Amino acid sequence: MRTTRYGEFVEVRVDEATHVAELVLDRPKAMNAVSTGMARSVAEACEAVAGDAGARVVVLTSTHERAFCVGADLKERNSFTDAELGRQRPHARAAYTGVLELPQPTVAAVHGYALGGGFELALSCDVIVADTTAVVGLPEVSVGVIPGGGGTQLLPRRVGAARAAELIFTARRVEAAEARELGLVDILAAEGADREEALELAGRMAGNSPVGLRAAKRALRTGWGMDLRAGLEVEDAAWRTVAFSGDRAEGVAAFNEKRRPEWPGE
Length: 266
Hints:
Blueprint: E1 2-6, E2 10-15, E3 20-25, H1 36-50, E4 57-62, E5 67-69, H2 74-78, H3 82-100, E6 106-110, E7 113-115, H4 117-123, E8 127-131, E9 135-137, H5 151-159, H6 161-170, E10 174-175, H7 176-182, E11 187-189, H8 194-206, H9 210-222, H10 228-243, H11 246-257
Helix pairs in contact: 1-3, 5-6, 9-10
């Protein structure tokens, strides 16, 4: 297990046996509220993980017992001038974009509060595992702003435009059972089991071809906003990346030899 701290508020643990990287939000005194410093830490950690060949899948977790992340640090922002708020914006965007653009499949492990920017961090992941204590929502309009970490774009892609509009315009919080029913989260775990279940899921993903995983994610994400014909071209390009790779050759050989593949990751 390799563990590296990025700034004061984030650490990354890479399990070299399972090839799963755990990106851990660690600002417990503020319930992981996203300050300027924490945003920088998240962005830096994502940049490092993106280039780590040993990390095939990334799990986003929290050290706080009662919260995944409560969103932007409004206590910090309360002291900002307009100019200071403007200067913070690139750091916040880099954090959310960093998670969204990780080339590996990503799984969020959510418990307790995941609100505003905290929920946007989870929405930036490919799969969201939540336990029964989870409370999610995008309440930004209740404090005079809008979701600015991708929420207005990511939420409609999950639940449709009308449902996203209702949730964003009312600023309401949604508890775990309803969140699962609406598709705000994908897997509902028992209380306290979100991290364990997310890591188990990530381990199953990580047993597959790292080249295939990244190519499949690229096809999924790039094709989101395209019509079918354009999306199929994206898929074909991703297929060609994998079809002529060392991973494809090893996967076919392992299948025929009835053994586990040893992925070269090339």
